Amino acid sequence: DPKLILGETHNSEYAGLPVGFNGTRRANATLLMLARNNELEKAKQSVRDLEEKFNRQFGYPWLFLNNVPFDQQFKEEISALVSGPVTFALIPPQHWYQPDWIDEEKASESRDAMVEQDIIYAGSVSYRNMCRFNSGFFYRHPLLQQYKWYWRVEPDVHFHCVVDEDPFLYMEEHNKVYGFTITLLEFEKTIPTLWPAVKAFAEENPQYVAPDNAMGYLSEDGGDTYNLCHFWSNFEIANMDFWRGEAYTEFFEYLDAKGGFYYERWGDAPVHSIAAALFLRKDQIHFFDEIGYEHHPFTHCPHTPGTIKKKKCTCRGWRSFDYQAYSCMRKWERIFK
Ligand code: GDP
Ligand code: MN
Which family does it belong to (predicted)? Predict the structure, then answer.
């Protein structure tokens, strides 16, 4: 039903305000959450936190997407928490489900083999649909066409510090394209052939590889092998023009045609991260140190001296993930030395 794809908007009296509640200029941006009906309590946790720490001062719109229609309770309880307009919409089915040209026999054998190896979400088709949707489709949703910027929010995350400077405007004013808070290592068994595909794409399309890119963060040997570092995409603040542009569009089509979203379990995190690191200049990627953020089991707490106090953070600096063994923060920092 096309009406469900265009969604249902609540609090629309606040839509389209040119300035935030605090009177500042606003970016062309939305807060974006993909969620399931049974994640209502977890979604409310994230919305409550982000509204309290950020959005009640700014009034940015929220957009909730789902592969099945949101139920009445979900819409009502979320609407009661938000300060700006909120829309609940359906994902077009062709953006979500496993395509016909995927060999289901091969895909199911590979799922079974991954289950044997105890890989997280190994047996899940819906998780694979989600990863492919987040990699190549969310920014094509009709309701996202009006926006340039999005802040991806997941159910059950925590925001630990006051966000009183608009991160979208920061990105815009400093020519940033992709923003993150946590960087870490991927499970190699979920992406065994991803890097060979990336290398083949880059060799065939050298025009897309940016000078002064962040390859030094992805690889220890100039690109021969992948060190598994990526930005944790459950938090993203980014410019969708990048995903909609020629380089990423060609890249996604190329990867999708390999079938690795279903024959392996390619995540949107390494796919987005590798694209950003190769097709952008490294200075177009931004680390938001001052945004304290938690998605189980990891927390980023600001490490710039004075920030925890200044931004009234509820996290503890010494527990921050950034310099723990599994983090890639040092690899991110080394490319700026
Ligand atoms: P994890 O963070 O990788 O452990 O995975 P999550 O379970 O948090 O899923 C990532 C995101 O995709 C969250 O925003 C989920 O709400 C969403 N998600 C995952 N699977 C589905 C699904 O089948 N349908 C919908 N609508 N959302 C999903
Ligand atoms: Mn999650």
Answer: Belongs to the glycosyltransferase 15 family.
